[in-house]
Amino acid sequence: MPVISAPYAFNEGDLYVDLESICGHPLYLKCEAFNFAGSIKLKAANEMVENAERDGILKADSVLVESSSGNLGVALSMIAASKGYRFLCVTDSRCNLSTRLLMEALGSEVHIVADQDSNGGFLGTRIEYVRSLCASDDRYVWLSQYTNAGNWTAHYRTTAPEIARRFPELDVLFVGAGTTGTLMGCARYFREWHRPVRIVAVDAAGSVAFGGEPGRRMIPGLGMSMRPPLLDESFVDEVIRVEEPDTIRMCHRMARHGFLFGGSTGTVVSGATDWLSRHDAGDLTAVAVAPDLGERYLDTIYQTNWLQDLYGDQVLAAEDGDRVPDTGDEAQVPDTRDTTPPKPLPREPKPASRAPARRRSTT
Length: 363
Fold this sequence. Notes:
Layout: E1 16-18, H1 20-23, E2 28-31, H2 41-54, E3 63-67, H3 71-83, E4 86-92, H4 97-105, E5 109-113, H5 123-136, E6 140-142, H6 150-157, H7 159-166, E7 172-176, H8 181-191, E8 198-204, E9 238-242, H9 244-255, H10 263-277, E10 286-290, H11 304-311
Parallel strand pairs: 2-10, 3-4, 3-6, 4-5, 7-8, 7-10, 8-9
Antiparallel strand pairs: 1-2
Helix pairs in contact: 2-3, 2-6, 3-4, 6-8, 7-8, 9-10
């Protein structure tokens, strides 16, 4: 058992769940949430912060700022608290309340944008707000998970080799598509591997990451309202789009077997199950990547009233006829989100002479 002094120093990378008894097809699920950030985003966050420190972009008085729908924000909150940085997460109304409270508990500031962008999402609005902050004060440092190469190199160095060591006969890999950091890191690694591996990207219906018309998306995590700058489709063999009701049903199906996973994981497993059902999968070694667990979704995809309001009474109709437990009577946590802009940063007294201004990162 390791002994650590920094929370980002621990990550369990070799835990897999055999889902064949749940999904009806041979599928191994790589669980990436067993760290102090609670999701796969710890890997990218750690890589980007360390790169910025090494390049001299992050200083003692720097304020990290990032656009995130939740998991990266939590990871950066944890790292910032451990290293002594201030952190401001710019998110939107789809961010789970428990996620926002977790970031605030770690000492971070959370700003929530309310206006949708031209594609009906919030990403464009979030990025515009981050850019305005960086223009207003040179102490803000934007790591930009959407363009930062550290987002995919983290998985090229860690996630993909972990899978390769455990499954040397891997045939097909299912990876969720958001910023596409995990997808591109794994796809680039296995393109260079000793045997061909089919890379299947799993996206949320309504996302425009791989083209198509934008649509309503209420579950945070996967999907984008713009084309991901990191995406290179030449490394992707196939794309599967999953409707949100299918994500929800898969989450509840796994929960009925004792595995409480998050919305991103439900999307990936649903897409993988659909793909395996349409292929001769009996002799295939198939792995899917699970980005998160389900605790942060208790007030959304595991809350019956929320589901019925958005998706109707039949969204939880189980295929096998089992009744899904009703949790709609649980007490609701009041939403106390603050959408006012953050206060200007106080400036420290400056000496008479100043060193040349440092370059601020936009990658």
